[in-house]
Design brief:
Layout (H helix, E strand, L loop, with lengths): L2 H12 L3 H8 L3 H9 L6 H10 L4 H5 L32
Helix pairs in contact: 2-3, 2-4
């Protein structure tokens, strides 16, 4: 899945607007439009910040729902520990 598809799908599933995602991630609505349209690719750090604003973890999205290291525990607490939620994106294992 492309970063544009991941970001758009995650935002739509979260039920928030591009403007609200931009506010939460401290970026501009124009940047969100550029990322979601595929005109610009976010860096991994930016994608991580955007997905965290949606309650997701970029490392899990990038590794198909499994923490890096073949299932080893991540040092970061799960999003639900910080009040976030986990979500499954199409094409990724549940």
């Amino acid at each position: 899945m492309s970063p544009a598809t991941v970001l758009r799908t995650a935002r739509e599933r979260a039920g928030i607007s591009k403007r609200e995602l931009a506010r939460r991630a401290r970026t501009s609505p124009a940047a969100i439009v550029a990322y979601e349209s595929g005109r610009r690719d976010p860096s991994f750090g930016t994608l991580d910040r955007l997905l965290r604003a949606l309650g997701l973890r970029a490392d899990l999205v990038a590794h198909g729902g499994t923490p890096p290291g073949g299932g080893a525990r991540s040092r970061r607490p799960p999003p639900e520990a910080a009040g976030g939620t986990t979500a499954v994106l199409p094409g990724l294992p549940a």
